[in-house]
Amino acid sequence: MNKRTKQLLLACALPVLILLGMTVKPIYTVLKGEEIKLQTKPVDPSDVFRGDYVALGYEAEEITKNLVDADVIKELNKRNTGVRVYVSLVEKEGIHVPEQVSLREPKSGIYLKGTLQYIGPNNLEKEVAYIEYSLDKYFIEDNTGTELEKAAARGDMLAMVKVKNGYAILTDLTVK
Predict the structure, then answer these.
(1) How far apart are CA 163 and CA 167, in angstroms?
(2) pLDDT in tens, 32-84
(3) Residue 6 exposure: Cα atoms within 13 Å on the Cβ side
(4) How does pLDDT run across 115-145, given as a tens digit for each residue?
């Protein structure tokens, strides 16, 4: 094989290897992660290119300020932009809820990696930390979102999430 052929093969193989490498973490999480349930607060939009999906919000995205460590608040005030945080979860009545928000990765237990965007009042005028987990869309078959919409309006929908080392993959939505 001459030098030119080797360069061509390398140029063709490199993008394929990069794309395959991007799938390792999500696949590993789905196969080896622990399944948890999160309470949702969804909206049901549609995307012209990708079809119907349920845009999800989670109760765990609005965490009361008293669960946020002081060093997280200091870091947020310094940066005034999103701060990478670790949200420890505890199971209560079959649903995982936040227990603590910290800058350090927990040594044990189930936790989610997220980005704390800001701390401010919610619609009930309570101080809460707003955290994003990148679990906000779940694609569904076209014209099948009506049941999920109705369940969401009643607050009867749970998100099934696989978590491994803080990395989370939304695997299913269930109606209570």
Answers:
(1) 6
(2) 988 888 887 755 555 555 566 666 778 899 999 999 999 999 999 888 778 99
(3) 3
(4) 999 998 887 788 999 999 988 777 777 766 6
Given its phi and psi angles, is residue 74 left (phi above 0), alpha (psi -120 to 50 degrees) or beta? Answer: alpha
28 pLDDT more than 70: yes
| Burial track 118-131 (b if 16+ CB lie within 10 A, e otherwise) | ebeeeeeeeebbbb
Neighbour tally for 147: CB within 10 Å? 11
**Domain positions in the chain:** 59-134
Q: Which residue in this structure is represented by tokens 């949200």? A: 87
Reference 94, options 50, 32, 159; nearest CA is 159
Give the CB-side neighbour count of residue 120, counting CA atoms within 13 A.
5
Residue carrying structure tokens 């395959």: 20
pTM: 0.77
Question: If residue 34 lies in a helix (H) or strand (E), which one and from where to where?
Answer: strand 34-39
| Nearest CA among 130, 156, 59 for reference residue 98 | 59
Q: Which two tokens stand for residue 9?
A: 């093969």
First to last CA, the chain: 61
Q: Which residues touch 129 (CB under 8 Å, ≥6 apart)?
A: 62, 63, 64, 65, 67, 68, 72, 101, 116, 118, 119
Alpha-carbon distance 39 to 101, whole Å? 18
33 φ/ψ angles, rounded to the nearest 5 degrees: -75, 160
